[in-house]
From TrEMBL:
<dbReference type="GO" id="GO:0051903">
    <property type="term" value="F:S-(hydroxymethyl)glutathione dehydrogenase [NAD(P)+] activity"/>
</dbReference>
<dbReference type="Pfam" id="PF00107">
    <property type="entry name" value="ADH_zinc_N"/>
</dbReference>
<dbReference type="InterPro" id="IPR011032">
    <property type="entry name" value="GroES-like_sf"/>
</dbReference>
<keyword id="KW-0479">Metal-binding</keyword>
<feature type="domain" description="Alcohol dehydrogenase-like N-terminal">
    <location>
        <begin position="33"/>
        <end position="162"/>
    </location>
</feature>
<dbReference type="GO" id="GO:0008270">
    <property type="term" value="F:zinc ion binding"/>
</dbReference>
<comment type="similarity">
    <text>Belongs to the zinc-containing alcohol dehydrogenase family.</text>
</comment>
<feature type="domain" description="Alcohol dehydrogenase-like C-terminal">
    <location>
        <begin position="205"/>
        <end position="334"/>
    </location>
</feature>
<keyword id="KW-0862">Zinc</keyword>
<dbReference type="InterPro" id="IPR013149">
    <property type="entry name" value="ADH-like_C"/>
</dbReference>
<dbReference type="GO" id="GO:0046294">
    <property type="term" value="P:formaldehyde catabolic process"/>
</dbReference>
<keyword id="KW-0560">Oxidoreductase</keyword>
<dbReference type="InterPro" id="IPR002328">
    <property type="entry name" value="ADH_Zn_CS"/>
</dbReference>
<protein>
    <recommendedName>
        <fullName>Alcohol dehydrogenase</fullName>
    </recommendedName>
</protein>
<dbReference type="InterPro" id="IPR036291">
    <property type="entry name" value="NAD(P)-bd_dom_sf"/>
</dbReference>
<dbReference type="Pfam" id="PF08240">
    <property type="entry name" value="ADH_N"/>
</dbReference>
<dbReference type="InterPro" id="IPR013154">
    <property type="entry name" value="ADH-like_N"/>
</dbReference>
């Protein structure tokens, strides 16, 4: 029976309160309005940003809301003026839109689209309303996606078609974690062959950055993490040396300087989202030409405590969203690279859970016992 044009009742994981477990609820999902697409979510990854939002680390999360932003599924129905998508198309939702019409989208200097910046921060659609409800209350969206729901509605600029033959339980990770880390190395830093790199935080994004450094030809890749088990895991992705800050009384940047003859690394990547590790990554980069990429997201209002002279002689600091990839242009290509075995994704999936056990996936992530848990939504 067709659901086109009808309100769909489905299951979703709802964050009702700050720092409380998700609650599995029956929610109502309205039909898409003009310019929108309703997607049946088949698989979704559990990302650190979802956990952080539930803890109140991101102002973009407005309670109550449905988390989730790293997903894959199929188009259920489209708004009246949508011609690019049709029912049954295999798609990846985008937390970073690409409208192809704004000044940002037309520029090769950025991959950030201006269309949904304001509304996605408020947890609503472009018209200022939500398509999700539960127990008579409006539910906010998260990053314009809310993939912890079996169905969700997205702006047409926040959806992209991908190879229908791709395994969606793996491809969902191309919606966030893997490109964010990988692109930070190959697009933002532009890691050079023979260079020395260091990566703080060996979770999914950090190990994807390691993988990008490896594929770019880095000679040395130093992994920094407080979990000693991450060294053996990191070797699979390209880590050549490992530092556990707990094993040293001196700051990590001092350890790195000693490992590099007092010079520092050509490229450093902070993938934790902590201002102290950000400082360490900057000071651990090469004094004259080191480039530090801030990949992790620190809570709003925090400042990196770095003295001006630390960058005076040539160090540079940069950051970027989604690894510098323009999502609608790049995700289909990344999926095809994965299908051609030129991009590793399977190695990041450590656990699979049902929607009813999604809190287990969050717990595994918080304990550092998984890279990604993927949730089977149907």
């Amino acid at each position: 029976m067709s659901t086109k044009g009808k309100v769909i009742t489905c299951r979703a994981a709802v964050a009702w309160e700050l720092n409380k477990p998700l609650v599995i609820e029956d929610i109502e999902v309205d039909p898409p309005k003009p310019g929108e697409v309703r997607v049946k979510i088949l698989w979704t990854g559990v990302c650190g940003s979802d956990a952080g939002a539930m803890l109140g680390k991101f102002p973009e999360a407005h309670f109550p809301f449905v988390p989730g932003h790293e997903a894959a599924g199929v188009v259920e129905s489209v708004g009246s003026d949508i011609s690019e998508f049709k029912e049954g198309d295999t798609v990846v939702p985008l937390w970073l839109s690409q409208c192809e019409q704004c000044d940002f989208c037309k520029s090769p200097k950025t991959n950030v689209c201006g269309k949904l910046i304001a509304t996605s921060k408020l947890g609503v659609m472009v018209d200022g309303t939500s398509r999700l409800r539960c127990r008579g209350k409006t539910l906010h969206t998260f990053l314009g996606v809310s993939s912890f729901s079996q169905y969700t509605v997205l702006d047409g600029s926040a959806v992209v078609k991908v190879n229908p033959s791709a395994p969606l339980d793996k491809v969902c990770l191309i919606g966030c974690g893997v490109p964010t880390g990988y692109g930070s190395a190959v697009n933002i830093a532009k890691v050079e062959k023979g260079s020395t790199c260091a990566v703080w935080g060996l979770g999914t994004i950090g190990l994807a950055a390691v993988m990008g450094c490896r594929d770019a030809g880095a000679a040395r890749i130093i992994g920094v993490d407080v979990n000693p088990a991450k060294f053996e895991l990191g070797k699979q992705f390209g880590v050549t040396e490992f530092i556990n800050p707990k094993d040293h009384e001196k700051p990590v940047e001092q350890v790195i300087l000693e490992m590099t003859g007092g010079l520092g690394c050509d490229f450093t990547f902070e993938c934790v989202g902590n201002i102290n590790t950000m400082k360490s990554a900057i000071l651990g980069s090469h004094l004259m030409w080191g480039k530090s990429v801030m990949v992790g997201v620190a809570p709003g209002g925090h400042e990196i405590p770095v003295e001006y002279k630390a960058i005076w002689l040539g160090r540079s600091i940069t950051a970027g969203l989604f690894g510098g990839y323009k999502p609608r242009d790049s995700i289909p290509k990344l999926v095809n690279q994965y299908m051609d075995k030129k991009l590793s994704v399977d190695e990041f999936v450590h656990h699979t859970r049902s929607l009813e056990k999604i809190n287990e996936g969050l717990d595994l992530l918080k304990k550092g016992e998984t890279l990604r848990t993927v949730i089977k939504m149907h």
